[in-house]
Amino acid sequence: MNAISFREDVLPLKDKIFRLALRITLDRQEAEDIVQDILMRIWDRRESLGEVESIEALSLTMCRNLALDHIKSKEKSNIPLSDAPPTEDREMPPDMLLIRSERLEAVRKLFDSLPVPQREAIQLRDIEGKSYAEIAQITGQSEASVKVNIFRARQYIRKQIEKKENYGL
């Protein structure tokens, strides 16, 4: 990539950076701080960014590393991702809405309880739509490790949901 425009190439990535930071840190304010810090770092390095092959991969890698540093320094415990309620379909009966919201909350809690490598791999693959190769580049893992982390995370969430649905535990 030759010329990188901060406004057109970097600023549109802020939402992706925020979502990844939020999934890793589980703290909205920390995620916002991380996004601001990354944007400042990229702005400071804007002269040398012409040599970068993928500004998106660079920014998501920076996000991952910075978020993991925040976790290590504060040894955070898991908290809910968002206080915002899920969008609801007004045509559904109230009991179905309640069941759906309970299931969604259960999945969020299970997602938050995953180890960081699994949580970030799922975030990048299922929510951000990244390929295995892109995830491997961002996380610094092999593609095989990325696939294993995604498989294990999905399997864990599926088993826990099935356990709850079938046994009421």
In short:
This protein has 169 residues and is an all-alpha fold. The chain has eight helices and no strands.
Provide a descriptive summary of the structure in words:
The chain has helices spanning 6-10, 14-25, 28-44, 55-74, 94-113, 116-127, 132-139, 143-167. It has 169 residues and is mainly α.
Please render the helix and strand layout as text.
Elements: H1 6-10, H2 14-25, H3 28-44, H4 55-74, H5 94-113, H6 116-127, H7 132-139, H8 143-167
Helix pairs in contact: 2-3, 2-4, 2-6, 3-4, 4-7, 5-8, 6-8, 7-8
Task: Provide the descriptors you would attach to this structure in a database record.
mainly alpha, 169 residues
> Describe the biggest sheet?
none
Radius of gyration from CA coordinates: 18 Å
Into which percentage range does the β-strand content fall? under 5%
Distance between the termini: 53 Å
Q: How many individual helices? A: 8
- Helical/strand content category: mainly alpha
State the helicity in percent bands.
Answer: over 70%
Give the helices and strands as they follow along the chain: HHHHHHHH
Mean pLDDT: 83
Count of strand segments: 0
Poorly predicted runs: 76-85
Which term fits the overall shape? elongated
